[in-house]
Amino acid sequence: MNNVPVKMLHTDMLESEGKICIVLDDSDTIPVVTVNAPRSVVDSLGAENIVATADVEDMTADNTVPIVLTTNKYSDSITNITGSISSVKLSVEDEERATLGIEAMVVGNVAENYQIGSISLEQNQVRVKGPASVVQGVNSAGVSVDVSGAESSISTNAEIHLYDEEGVDISTDKHLTLNIDKVMVRVEVLPLKEVPIKIAVSGTPADGYRLNGETAVEPGRVTIAGRRSVLENVTEISIPSTDLNVRGRNKDLIKTFKISDYLPDGVTLAEGEMDSVKVTVEIVPTATEEE
To answer: pTM for this one?
Structure first.
């Protein structure tokens, strides 16, 4: 029989002492088990009939545990049973625990004219335990959500992955135990909309000067993001006249504003948009009109 698993017994004895054992060299699987018995008995036995155990209470000074082999049927007819290996090799270490923040990442690109909004986790921490040497190698925890082509928000139960310092996924290390394997993630997907930036001017220039009606707004349009129900009510971004007062001026008024200061609630700038608009209000001498 090939590849017979070995069941470890009394591992709780180590756990009660704050220790944990790591099986070395895959020695908890016996490559070949040989059974000496009449042909009819051997032919009726399968790997599932071989019972292999290793009792931690019998661990030797060099951290090896002898394997005991029996069968769950025809044991009276078997004259001998041996394995190609006779013991399980262990490394015994202190158990260590760590609590890590969970980072959420997105994979792929949402549909055209959409962008990612907020990303929220139902639970933002995971507790990890295992041998000290393994736990100390865990640098971060994260989940990923595929947003390829998405036009609406996504909620999914995402599997938690553990990474070492170089970003290599070590989640499959069988010696690590997590208090949760998955966490609910919500990725907000928001539509985009392009709207003009409008201004209003207040005040009267100094005597002998006037507004010539020419203003420059750079950029004149901006792309914003928000929930569809909010964007439907946004037709422009307005800079009020109270912020563009030309009273007593005898030269052009040039001001730069943060666009985000004038966005309605629930609206943000699209990714890549500059949070700046330059406004120029031209003021000319009154004599210009007479000429």
So the answer is: 0.72
